[in-house]
Amino acid sequence: MKTLRPLLLFVLLTSIARAEPAPAVEHPWVKLFNGKDLSGWTAKVNGHVCGENPFKTFSVEDGILKVSY
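^ thats the sequence. predicted structure below, dont judge the formating
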């Protein structure tokens, strides 16, 4: 009985050590910004209605999303 516990622990640890990791699933990147305009984006500025872009807070310049407060 005294040798059974260490033996079971040894078997358990060696089986865990030999286990192969699951293959990584590769997902394609999802483009969030097209670099041209704000289509697909909904601006939300505190104190204003969702979808409003007061004071041109969000804009696109040279393919870069710009936020000006």
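The chain has a mean pLDDT of 88.
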